[in-house]
Description:
The chain has helices spanning 2-23, 27-52, 54-111. By secondary structure, the protein is mainly α. The protein folds into 2 domains: 1-52; 54-112. The chain starts with a helix and ends with a helix. It comes from Streptococcus sanguinis.
Amino acid sequence: MRQVNIKIEEELLDRIDTLANKSGKNRSQYMIDKALEEDIVQDIPDIENNIESESTIKILTDQVDYLKEQLKIKDEQLERSDILLKESLDLKNNLLLTHKQHWWQRIFRSKS
Length: 112
């Protein structure tokens, strides 16, 4: 049985070598090109079926709408955080200014 397998493999390799030589390529390049051609030919009908499928289009549309809504929510959250950050910085600056004013007043009172 093993000898039969080896003979079939040798015949197959010889045939592949012949086809590769006819196309002006080595065995590896010929096999890679054929595999790529088969993948492309098999993928084309799958892609066409997926694109034409109304349910797929509806699902994708729903997903896009959902993502748009999520982006809108994130934008609103960012706006609120920006407002809170600005208010916090304003408060900090006001407190710092008040503290400095009191500090300078104490310095001038102690000199008088």
